[in-house]
Structures are given as C-alpha cells and as structure tokens.
Request: fold
Amino acid sequence: MSSTHFGFKTVDESDKARHVRGVFDSVASKYDVMNDLMSMGLHRVWKRYTVRVADLREGYQVLDIAGGTGDLAMAFAKEVGHTGRVVHTDINEAMLSTGRDRLLDHGVVLPTLVCDAEKLPFPDNHFDVVSVAFGLRNMTHKDAALQEMCRVLKPNGKLLVLEFSKVAKPLEKAYDWYSFNVLPKLGKMVAGDDASYRYLAESIRMHPSQEDLKALMKTCGFGHVDFHNLSAGVVALHVGIKC
Ligand SMILES: C[S@@+](CC[C@H](N)C(=O)[O-])C[C@H]1O[C@@H](n2cnc3c(N)ncnc32)[C@H](O)[C@@H]1O
Reply:
C-alpha cells in the first residue's frame, strides 16, 4: 500500500480523504468567520481577483470544484447571467450544504453536487471555466484531479487554481510564526478545534511551490500555464489553458 502526507503526518493513501473529511466536517459551521479572521479579510480580495481573471461571459458553463461555502460560485453566478450555469460542487456534504444555504439566503439557486475532484461526473469538453480555490492542497492524487479538470474543460477552456503557495523569503519567518502559533490558537478559540488549523498550516508547507505546480499542470494536459503571486506568494493563482 502507498503512503502520502496529511499535513506533516504520513498516512495510508486510502485514508487521506477520510482525514480531510474530518477536518472539514469539524470546521464547516465556522469556516467563513475563520476565513475572515485568519486572512484579515484578504481571502475576499484573492477571490475577487480570481473572478476578474476568469473573465466570464453571459452564457458560460462554469464548474466550481471544492466550492465549499460558495464564495466563488456566488460571484461567478452574477457574471454568467440566466443563459449560463455555475455548478457548485464539493466532496464534503457539511461544507456544501452550509454553502448551499448561504447561496439560498442570497437568492442564488445553483446546481449543487457532492463529488470527488478525482472522478468528476461530467462529460468531456463541457465547461468554459473550471475553478478550484484552496481545495487542490487537500486532494490525495493532485495529478488525477488536474487531469479530470482538463478533461471536462472545452478546448481553450480555462482552469483557475487559487491556492496557498510559497511565500517570499523575507516573510518566511514571520509567516511561519503566525501559521504555527496564531492559527491553531484562533482555531481553538473560534471553532473549538486547533488540530484542523494546525493541519492547514502543515498542508500549506507540503503543497507544491508555484513553479512545481505549474510543471504539474503542464504534465496533466494544460498547454499553457501561468501563475500570479498574490500577497507576496502567500497565495498564487495558477491559470491553465487547455490547448
Ligand atoms: C479550504 S476549503 C475551500 C472552500 C472554498 N473553495 C473557498 O475557497 O472558500 C477546501 C475544500 O476542499 C474540499 N475537498 C477536499 N478534497 C476534495 C476532493 N477530492 N474533491 C472535491 N473537494 C474536495 C473540502 O471538502 C473543502 O470544502
């Protein structure tokens, strides 16, 4: 049996999804407030930037993977109009239903589907844009997920991967201190769960750097890949074109 990482721990590959589910089952109800607190509101700016780069048009077919509480899906829905469609998906029912309720509270009704990014239940060449925000890091087989994202995109379609990345060297020490000291304490205080926020900090360190993710996306079928560093590389937006 193969092993993989779950944060800094080594776990059996077949067990990682269960560990990840545990994290998101635990944090779902406090996910949005924690996002605002941890990033001091910056995640809203990163997502707004992602929506700009998506450059959606009326009538576009969009798939949001690992969509969680629905920030991107809600913003995309405003751009594609009545003739377009945004499908809001996630592997975790607690995250997805929290998101669906939130979308309904905002008067946004979208198709919502529990599905694993590694086995997408959609036909080939179907979507104009696919997005995954802060989700890829948690997936067991990132290559399989990226290949699936490429498969369901139309030729010339665009994949947007918004994810934590490698921060600029001068900020490393401060960022490490914040991640390993402040985040778990904040998690404990607000969500009653320090372990999930320790996993967050660890999983960020285990995620491929900007250049490594770019190379991986290329091997998974994207002919052109670029990345945009945001907040000195705390986050990067990778844009892959299926060509
Ligand atoms: C940090 S949340 C991001 C939620 C939302 N996209 C956002 O930016 O706020 C990560 C999400 O990835 C989902 N996820 C993890 N593994 C997945 C997989 N294999 N397929 C689909 N979603 C997955 C989790 O359930 C969780 O909702």
Observations:
- The pocket of S-adenosylmethionine is lined by residues 20, 24, 65-69, 71, 90-92, 95, 116-118, 133-135, 138-139 (CB under 6 Å).
- The chain has nine helices and nine strands.
- The radius of gyration is 17 Å.
